[in-house]
Amino acid sequence: MSMSMSMEDREIMIELKGINKHYLLKQALTGIDLQIRKGSIVGLLGPNGSGKSTLLKMMAGLIYPTSGSIRVNGREPDVRNKQHIAYLPEIDNLYGWMTVKETLRFLSGFYSDWQADKAAEMLQTMELGENQKVRNLSKGMRARLKLIAALSRKVPLVLLDEPFSGIDPPSRSKIIRSIIQEFQSDEQTILLSTHSVGESEPMFDDVIFLHSGRIKLFDSAENLRENFGCSLENIWEKVYA
Fold first, then answer.
1. Which of 3, 57, 97, 104 has a CA that sits 20 to 30 A from residue 16's CA?
2. pLDDT by residue, tens only, the chain of 241 residues
3. How is the chain split into domains, by residue range?
4. Domain with residues 11-239, CATH architecture
5. R_g over Cα of the chain
6. Is residue 29 within 8 Å of 55, Cβ to Cβ?
């Protein structure tokens, strides 16, 4: 993606130093040192169990590190940060008895930064009928609705955990083009975890490869492609072979 300034000139949106996270029987993250600059779309890649969801929840202030420090936009994240962060979890937390329109109206009541015009525009793009009951939507349609909910907020940081899960390839391509078109690098930073590496590749400015709770690779998408001489999808195959 073309940027109005180089990534090196941008301020830091997220900084993690020596992050470790362990649960009773599992070490989820180990020694994470990371700086993510404002105005970038960052791909968070890795197989299931690599720590992607744990890392995103930590940035959202939903869980805390066992040790180490984390700063999001200059402050330690906590539940109060939800007014400045749009977080889309992998789990489905929609109410089945609501219609699509009622769902978006319900969510808009929680956020002063809600953009109703953008939500309406994305309903058209995602080909969702506002009078459809959520319980009658396919998994892919529900995923589209969740994505609309996250992207309709005007916040500096958007965290998307497997947003394309259950969405067919043609729809994924349309949604990805929409994200690129709507993205404003002077106002927003997006972190996106996904298994759809090939289709998502055009979005990414920087890419993090996680493996067993550790950072395997972290660089700009351009440098990674140049250094490995292949696409991010092929790099994935090499890293996790």
1. 3
2. 434 344 455 689 999 999 999 998 889 999 999 999 999 999 999 998 899 999 999 999 999 999 999 999 888 887 777 788 999 988 888 889 999 999 999 999 988 899 999 899 889 888 889 999 999 998 888 888 998 999 899 999 999 999 887 778 877 887 787 788 777 667 789 999 988 888 889 899 999 999 999 999 999 999 999 999 999 999 999 998 8
3. 11-239
4. 3-Layer(aba) Sandwich (3.40)
5. 18
6. yes
